[in-house]
């Protein structure tokens, strides 16, 4: 638990020696092809089959995030970075398409990919670690995009999983 909290505070690295700030500075290509950082940015209560040494949300971790604004601020920074990866941005308490939407849509939202699982993980993590409003805004944005975007490859079944992730 302590190693994960220190990672999120920015003072200690993850299992590969990467600091939170270094991960958040990576470009979209790196975020796409690297598969073991997402469990560190957005842990859940479930064991990761992909990254066995990834952190798992315990009651202590949950309490730490709920009681520490800096931890939640760093979680929000991680969330905002991943929104950009998806071609979205946080603006005036809304999540909307960003200027890179068309490029990222092609990569993330025209077919069922591992990015759908990443979104499920992000939603679950945000809910557990004190950013419930942000999780709901993200889901609402995705639902709206599914209804309005041509060639949006996210199915109703996937939206159902995302809604369930909200609890």
- N-to-C span: 24 Å
Identify low-pLDDT runs.
none
- Which outline best applies? globular
Spatial strand order of the main sheet: 1-2
Query: Mean pLDDT score, rounded?
Result: 94
Structural class: mainly alpha
Helix content: 55-70%
Strand elements, count: 2
Count of DSSP H/I helices: 10
- As a whole number of angstroms, the C-alpha radius of gyration is 15 Å
Query: Could you give a short account of the major beta sheet?
Result: 2 strands, antiparallel
What portion of the residues fall into strands of 2 or more residues?
under 5%
| Helix-strand string | HHHHHHEEHHHH
Summarize the structure in words.
The protein is mostly helical and 167 residues long. Helix content is 59%, strand content 5%. It contains ten helices and two strands; from the N terminus they run H-H-H-H-H-H-E-E-H-H-H-H. Strands 1-2 form a two-stranded antiparallel sheet. Helix 8 (114-128) packs antiparallel against helix 9 and helix 9 (132-148) packs antiparallel against helix 10. It starts with a helix and ends with a helix. The model has no long low-confidence stretch (mean pLDDT 94).
Please describe the topology of this protein:
Blueprint: H1 2-9, H2 20-24, H3 28-33, H4 38-41, H5 59-67, H6 69-85, E1 88-91, E2 94-97, H7 101-108, H8 114-128, H9 132-148, H10 156-165
Antiparallel strand pairs: 1-2
Helix pairs in contact: 5-6, 8-9, 8-10, 9-10
